Amino acid sequence: MKTEWDYTALADAYLKRPDYAEAAIDAMLAIARQRAGSEVCDVGAGVAHLTLMLAARGARVTAVEPNDAMRANGVARTAHLQGVHWHEGTGEATGQVAQAFDLVTFGSSFNVCDRQAALAETARILKPGGWFACMWNHRRLDDPIQSRIESIIRAHIPDYGYGSRREDQTSVIDASGLFGAVVHLDAAVLHRQSIDECVEAWRSHATLQRQAGGAFAQIIDEIQGYLQEMGTASIDIPYSTHVWVARLR
Predict the structure, then answer these.
(1) pLDDT tens digits for 159-171?
(2) Minimal CB count within 10 Å: which of 128, 206, 245, 247?
(3) Gyration radius from the chain CA atoms
């Protein structure tokens, strides 16, 4: 399925992206009163990072993903799970029947949707009183290594921005008029990567590619040089998982 942003070339690199913080997922499910057997639609499921965490907690997951390469990786990673089923679709048009789900999740995907249209679609496929959740992993920019990488980027792109993925989503959810009080959660997670994996992750960073233009290759070279100068085989990258949860009115 063709979408505005094509992640085909990034599908394999996404396999090495960090999982969400276990504590954040557990808190989200507790607030949304989910239990084993809950019907969850994971929208923009990608390569199944969140899908696998939901399934491990007993949810029956319908994973919706528009990109063929991403979806193929997700299907392969969840092939052993009978309670996970994959479908082609987007946040604005999931292709799912009305009032089918207890919870609809967007793991690092809500920002690439028309958010109001995605909220309307979420409300359509939720059961009465069902729940919405969106989440992202944010690199901790106060970490010395990440701070240095940030300075390399901003030396070339002074106004570099992360877009809506680092915004507080509360006002967007409230503006829909479809959901009740929004709860914001966050929890820490540490992700270890080899230097080569870290460089590859930056090489597949779609937001940086779009904003860097012709400077992209030089930025990656400088990040790679900095990391290799550290003389270590791997680094620990601290993230914060941020989750916004709200119940359908």
Answers:
(1) 999 999 999 999 9
(2) 128
(3) 18
